[in-house]
Design brief:
- The structure holds two protein chains of two kinds.
- By secondary structure, chain A is mostly helical.
- Helix content of chain A is 86%, strand content 0%.
- The model of chain B has no long low-confidence stretch (mean pLDDT 96).
- Classes of the chains: A mainly alpha, B alpha+beta.
- Chains A and B meet through α1 and α3 of A and α10 of B.
Chain lengths: 110, 238
């Protein structure tokens, strides 16, 4: 089935992006918490910074692609849920991840 | 080797029970020997299936102490801890009676996976020459010795969660054909094995590879199919 193959490729590609993003994210955390962590310090680094905005936008998109595709077989194998309602649920989950993620990114980086 | 083996055997169909038997132990005794002893000496109503007794036909697979195995090549010494055996029919297949499963879904899935060769050559053509060391030939060789015993299918958790899933044996068969340079049906076959019920459903648990009595790796074959399907999709062939 062509659509399943496209989803598989999308999940593999987003996994590759996530591997890089998670690494950068974790290194940033380790760097940022040296000597304590304050909201002001975080905002000073991220606000108005187009680089962080671009990075976390890519990160959120990769998550919104990757996680819902992985959720599909879990819903089928654990709950026996298949067919069109499953696809709508998964699509809604993708939109929710994208919305929540981008909301946070825009607050922190804009 | 002497003494007695305590054997619990599944009797009945889906509704059934374990029945206990005592079987004398012998040197080099196989699990199939044990089942045959029960049927010939103790209880002739016991149903089980075998043919060749030498690991070629793939008909005698059962669940032995919780693990799917070919019973004709499984020595009692290796599996009967504390002199006990528990024998059940293979998992993931309908039970006909006792130790006999209905293998139809298993082999129907080989057909669904287009597990048959289609070539373009006729009887007037010369033999195809395929270099033994070519990558495609080696990929086909790695999976070609499957005897269709169903052990991998019974070992696979994805089959138990998703009954439509083609399973390791059918996909392994498809991979040997996709790797066969003489075959002319590759694109159709890749269409048949892609998707939620095909190669993309595999979680790479590797239970099939762990349990295959022929030491094949259906997991590697399925990974090959995922690559082949992705390549065909990116080239716009699917």
């Amino acid at each position: 089935m062509r659509s399943d193959t496209v989803l598989w490729i999308a999940q593999r590609a987003s996994a590759a992006v996530l591997a890089l993003c998670v690494t950068v994210h974790l290194l940033t955390i380790v760097y940022a918490v040296r000597g304590g962590l304050t909201a002001a310090e975080i905002f000073a680094r991220t606000r108005g910074n187009a680089g962080w905005l671009a990075f976390y936008t890519v990160f959120v998109i990769a998550v919104a692609v990757h996680a819902p595709i992985g959720l599909r077989p879990v819903l089928t194998e654990w709950l026996g849920w298949r067919g069109r309602t499953r696809e709508w649920f998964v699509a809604a989950f993708a939109v929710a991840l994208l919305w929540m993620g981008m909301r946070a990114v825009l607050v922190v980086c804009r | 080797m002497s003494g007695t083996l305590r054997v619990s055997v599944w009797r009945g169909a889906v509704a059934g029970h374990l029945q206990s038997y005592e079987v004398p132990r012998h040197p080099s005794q196989t699990v199939l020997d044990v089942v045959t002893h029960i049927q010939r000496k103790i209880d002739p109503t016991l149903a089980y299936r075998y043919a060749c007794r030498v690991g070629m036909c793939g008909s005698c697979a059962m669940t032995v102490n919780g693990v799917p195995r070919w019973t004709c090549r499984t020595h009692v010494d290796k599996v009967a801890a504390a002199g006990r055996l528990e024998l059940r029919p293979l998992r993931n297949l309908p039970i006909v009676r006792d130790l006999v499963t209905d293998m139809r879904t298993f082999f129907d899935k080989w057909e669904r996976a287009q597990g048959h060769f289609e070539g373009a050559a006729t009887k007037t053509d010369d033999f195809a020459r395929v270099a033994p060391d070519s990558p495609a030939r080696q990929a086909a060789d790695a999976g070609i010795e499957c005897i269709g015993c169903g052990v991998c299918y019974a070992a696979c958790d994805v089959v138990s969660w998703n009954p439509d899933y083609l399973g390791p044996a059918a996909l392994n068969r498809a991979w040997t054909l996709v790797s066969d340079v003489r075959d002319t049906n590759s694109v159709e076959r890749l269409r048949a094995i892609a998707g939620d019920a095909g190669c993309h459903a595999c979680h790479t648990h590797m239970s099939c590879t762990e349990r295959c009595p022929k030491h094949l790796s259906p997991t590697a074959s399925i990974a090959g199919l995922k690559r082949a399907v992705a390549k065909a999709a990116l080239q716009g062939k699917l």
